[in-house]
Here is the input.
Amino acid sequence: MVLSRVKEALENLGVKPEDRILVALSGGADSMTLLFLLNELGHFCQAAHCNFHLRDKESNQDERFVFDYCLGRDIPIHVKHFDTQEEARKRGISIEMAARDLRYKWFWELVDKEGFQWLMTGHHGDDMIETFFLNLARGTGLRGLKGMRPKNGKLIRPLLSLQREEIEQFCHENGIPYRTDSSNSDVIFQRNNIRHNVLPVMNMLNPSFFNTMLHNFHNLDEAWQIFEKEVSEVRKNVVAEEDNQMLVPLRLIREHPQKRTMLFEILHPYGFNSKTIDEVIDSLGGTPGKQFFSQTHRLVRDRYNLILVPRDEADHRFYYIQGDDENIEDPFPMSLRIFEKNDDFTFSRESECVHLDADLIEFPLHLRHWQDGDHFRPLGMEQFKKLSDFFVDQKFSLVGKEKTWLLISGEDIIWVVGHRIDDRFKVSKTTRRILELKVKP
Here is the structure.
């Protein structure tokens, strides 16, 4: 019965007999059953096993077990070792999330390198139900409650209609060996707590709870597809992208009847959780400048927009420009030339091209970002102005200020690049030589 159900599932999912399949093989009952079934059905398979080194000797024993099993049946197997704890520490994420990211990154590399049509995992229905309760407790929204899809691109999960108990019974009936993770009974882990304490109560309340949940997942997935279409429309009409940043107009978010849900769906792919979204909503009526952080991105509440940018380190370096340089490439492409002023000279109207009095300038020049206390004399003014006040007057966003480069001669700002030169260094009637600076597209 299990064989026929999986055979039908594979056919419905578009898997052809000649397709090359990579099986994620942990050594547990589910992945061992999947590999056994695919071989019984005549599919060409290779296995991929990850050793995360999280369970001392057991991790190495799992590796030896799957290696010997595949070797004895002429099934090619790929094995990779990971320092999972270091990855989690480095990225500031959970061990579980680090392991998931590491394995799928490697799996997809194998799929591309070896030319597999499909990557298959042994996820079953109980996995899906446990994930539902985990996500319900975490507050992931509808996205986390809709269950796993049996097919997502090249990823296929053929066992989602099966229960853990069915799979283990199938292993016993067919002599399929498998490894049991000793930590599976430890309720300190949230998933195990749900498995051993929550699901038995649900099954007592409803003896058909498993089938009821499969039906619920189908309904939730259909509801999600309707909702996802609405979210896509809002993204298309509300969200703008420019200069590696995403802009979400505050006015449109404030006016949306489901602002919290919509904002969650827009920002969740960038690592923002439900609690942070609540804080963002609370900030909409406050003053600009508040910032929110995920592991990978920064969200700035500006005057008119929420601005999303990658969370990379600010560039605090100085980039020097010598007097004989004609072109520079870092931190951005720019050309330089010095020429004698004559009667034919005309000023450029482009903001990315300026002309300065070359004899007033001290080389080497250098480029840097703004610092507290910076000031200059904007073109046309007789008094100095704090750069921070200039930014406010010109309605710079916080992100815009951080990205703006300053060209420095000695201790003086001579050009707020792309915006304004210093009046002291302008080309005047007494200028003899001109320095032309042009930022290249």
